[in-house]
Amino acid sequence: MFVQIVFYFLAAVLVGAAVMVITARNPVHAALFLVLAFFTSAGIWLLLEAEFLAIVLVLVYVGAVMVLFLFVVMMLDINLAPLREGFIRYLPVGAAVAAIVVVELALVIGVSDFGLESMPAPPAHPADYSNTRELGKLLYTVYVYPFELAGAILLVAIIAAIALTMRRRTGVKTQNPSRQVEVRREDRIRIVQMPAEPRERVDRS
Amino acid sequence: MPEPLATALGWLPHELGLLVEALIKVVALLVPLLVTVAWFTYAERKVIGYMQVRLGPNRVGPKGLLQPIADAMKLMFKEFIVPAGANRFLFVVAPVISLTTALAAWAVVPFSDFLVVADINAGLLYVLAMTSLGVYGVIIAGWASNSKYALLGAMRCAAQIVAYEIAMGFALVVVLMAAGSLNLREIVLAQEGGWAQWFWLPLLPMFVVYVISGIAETNRAPFDVAEGESEIVAGFHVEYSGMAFSVFFIAEYTNMVLISALTVIMFLGGWLSPFPGLADLAFVGWIFAPGVHWFIGKLVFFMFLYLWLRATFPRYRYDQIMRLGWKVFIPLTIIWIVVVGIAIMVGLPPWFDAA
Prior knowledge:
The complex is a heterodimer. Chain A is an all-alpha fold.
């Protein structure tokens, strides 16, 4: 009973937030609603006893990816009016695509395949069951090659993204912090030894 | 549920009993925590005062001890001003997010073998997730203020926190490799057996990385460019006044205490005693037995370290903060993951030969 109340609450918030992501006029608001959507779906995953995935969703997507998203969106100076232009004109096409997607999804994950009869709720795990440990065992034994492959592909993607966006311009003066912190006193000042000259004596006698 | 609490709440229905028990635990944790935070601000002003050969606050109460109460009263009666053109809802919500995430992470912090609100087995991940949410308070505050200085502060803060979170996360990955558990209580228990067994010694570079990243994460001097009084006035909270400002203030200090507590748990054996062999001595033996007094002692040292560093170092330049995070700390932590992996494989005594 309690679990169901929590589930319906989270699900309602999730759907509402997801709708707001695409309807909010302000891109910052849209990004913040996406944060809310991630957070509530993490809550639903917790209900499914997938605490590792839930916490990692918050940690990675909410804590890092969306921060960078917001970082970019807040610095954009978007004129909102042109973005809204032609909403009515494109509405029939958009609605048709959306309807097709809904029908396809309903065909694949309809009640006949994923209903309570064919997919009964699995028995709850005992209290000492560690979702993190089980996932780790699976990832590093049974699925170790796909896992390593995914890691290698991501690494290649990172390097490619950096290589594509990095450009070296010549003739630009930039600071080099590594060289700056390596500076020693000897590079900057020169201490000159000079013999002290005898002071002129004033004869006061 | 501990036995006395279970019998005291036995007459309630089961679910309600659990709820009341959780509430009692939360209050028992938060009240001492917030009192600590209040007098931590006093300690900061006093300690920095003495380090700068001043007296610090000394007018309210004996030796100025009631200064935090006077500050709180003053802030409570100040007007809360929402700037024109600010996003009202987000402007009000931002400090609440800051404080909530700072307090929520305390749920899994073990003060001793049994003093913990929620002993969950993914505790380390939970702490990381909660501390990574704290940045939203700052970003939203900076954006919703509709102020250039606040936005600049928020941008600096976001970049800095994301950069140092990676180093911090990797340092904690090394800790969890060494401890073999994500549960904070088990991480402490894995360090049992005297000061040489604590993780600060085999993970010394990670210890240094974690302490410095912690200072950067909490936006404290010398990494406080998000506030940067000399450049962007007060950064993200320049538009906040009254209680809303003080909520940010409380969140910052709560985070400092939290990072200190986590450092103690991960690297200095939490509530464990450095000399467990002396626990059998007569009369003074209880001092050398493991207990919450060791936790508090170590915690106070790291809290003092924050104040000490603030009084000692000038503010870092922004590009050097980024260089330190990305080019020094992250490579160092990745190398140390490999080093500790090899040490665990060969079972390097005296730390990794148990398993």
